[in-house]
Amino acid sequence: MALPEPFSARELCARLAEERNRPLELLPLPKPTVPGTPSGMWLATEAGDYIFYDAQTSALHQEHIIVHEIGHMMCDHRSAGDGQRLYRHLDITDPRSVRTVLPRIRYSDVQEQEAEMIASLILEAAGRIPAPARLSGTLGGLESAMGLRGAGRRGTDMPCSRG
């Protein structure tokens, strides 16, 4: 998927919704998040996709949260346990209902790492964060010899596990 220029997480969501042929709505969380609670969440329901994000943080952080949740969508991650039963009873217009679900949503460390990698790749491609510096010296030689130089930058490589 081509990134919007100029880049905006909202426009990326609009393109993703069109590509997936499903509504995708961005919704601010009703209260600021506190340490130990998620600052964002993706819910996939029969009606569409919803990304909740902490709107009480900086614009840059909001963008990162949203793109991180897009990473979960792109990898088709699922929450631990039977989240679908919970989603059927979720009223996204009721902040208490959303807050009730938040603590129950947990992803494995691998899923979090994948979503974070996708967020980093998207934000790097959009010019929001600098590209990592190439390794030099012995480490650069090893990277090149192992065929790792430039790995993951070909557009077809997705850091999602399939299992």
Descriptive notes:
By secondary structure, the protein is mainly alpha-helical. The chain has a single domain (9-133), classed as Arc Repressor Mutant, subunit A (Orthogonal Bundle). The chain is 41% helix and 9% strand. It has a 3-stranded mixed beta sheet, covered by helices on one side. A hairpin with a 4-residue loop joins β2 and β3. α2 (59-74) crosses α5 (109-125). The chain is elongated, with a radius of gyration of 17 Å. The protein starts with 8 loop residues before the first helix and ends in an 18-residue tail after the last helix. The model is unreliable at 151-156 (pLDDT under 50).
Q: What's this entry about, in short?
A:
With 163 residues, the protein is mainly alpha-helical. The protein has 6 helices and 3 strands, in the order αβββααααα. It has one domain: Arc Repressor Mutant, subunit A, CATH 1.10.10.
Give the helix/strand layout.
Layout: H1 9-20, E1 24-28, E2 40-44, E3 49-53, H2 59-74, H3 83-88, H4 95-101, H5 109-125, H6 137-145
Count of the domains: 1
Radius of gyration: 17 Å
* Average pLDDT metric: 77
Query: Termini distance?
Result: 24 Å
Return residue spans where pLDDT drops below 50 for at least 5 consecutive residues: 151-156
Task: Quickly give the structural class.
Answer: mainly alpha
Outline the biggest β-sheet.
3 strands, mixed
